[in-house]
Amino acid sequence: MERILAGIRPTGKLHWGNYFGALQNWVQLQKKYECFFFVADWHSLTSEYADSSKIKNWTIEVLKDVLSAGVDPDKVVLFIQSHVPEHAELHLLLSMMAPLGWLERVPTYKEMRQELVDKDLNTYGFLGYPVLQSADILLYNANKVPVGEDQLPHLELTRELVRRVHFLTGKTIFVEPQPLLTKTPRVPGMDRRKMSKSFGNAIYLDDEPKEITAKAMQTLTDPARKLRSDPGNPDVCTVYDFHKLVSDEATLKWSDHGCRTAGIGCVECKQAMAKNAIEYFKKFREEKTKWDNKEAQLFEIAAEGSKRASKVARATLEKVREALGINY
Length: 328
Ligand code: TRP
Ligand code: SF4
Hints:
single chain; mainly alpha; Rossmann fold; Tyrosyl-Transfer RNA Synthetase; 2 domains; two-stranded parallel ribbon; binds tryptophan; binds iron/sulfur cluster
């Protein structure tokens, strides 16, 4: 069976962008692959080091979200990155061979530094973000890594690092991981920018029905449709983008036709979308409340996963130490 590895960086509870872009996919992948899924808490530290007090809670939220969405810890290896210190050792060894120029050229490096202006990302750790990600992937010899477009350069760097390590040591140690591109296009936020916690435009998986409806009402529509009597264009409407995620074919047709002919109003259309979204995440909300006050159990599940992950990770590290001649 082919092996999959994927991580989520905890920065809070998960929103629709995380769900439709990644988590939904994880639930499907666990049926067909041997899966290693983890919470990348050290990756959060690369940008949150100045105030790391929330990382624990974020990690808990992400674990709850992952489990409530249907990831089954009996089928997959579910773990927390910082519980498997082998990630740090491989990161260190890879960093010795990672050319600075490669890291400085990674597009997310420049973008994140421009976007997160309130954070000082001029650190050694932040530059090394993709090296840590490479270690995550290579420790488990993952064949495939499910990613969105934005992560492709990180995966490319991982592959380049594999070739470099093999060239420098003269040994074949790692598997070159291939990307498994997520089909859902980038999910917009209520304001049409990329959905992101830091933009304040996100709808969360555990938002209560009231909140979902309120957010639906705030969501940007076709800006050219000013009056109820103006026909609109769903192709440029964020509400319609959301419909595509949570509504069935019949509703999509109703919305598309009603919009183009001015047969329906935007409020009606938003209400229909909210109603479907509430239904879509009903089971999720129920599952998530079951984890209330069950932190100890969550960490037990993660500990069990970390044990299984460590076993695989240690075997890989043994090979790396041997290839470098430092296995004494
Ligand atoms: N960088 C990824 C993101 O921001 C998270 C991540 C860390 C990851 N390590 C990984 C994803 C390894 C896939 C494989 O989404
Ligand atoms: Fe968007 Fe619906 Fe309004 Fe059309 S009717 S602009 S699809 S909210």
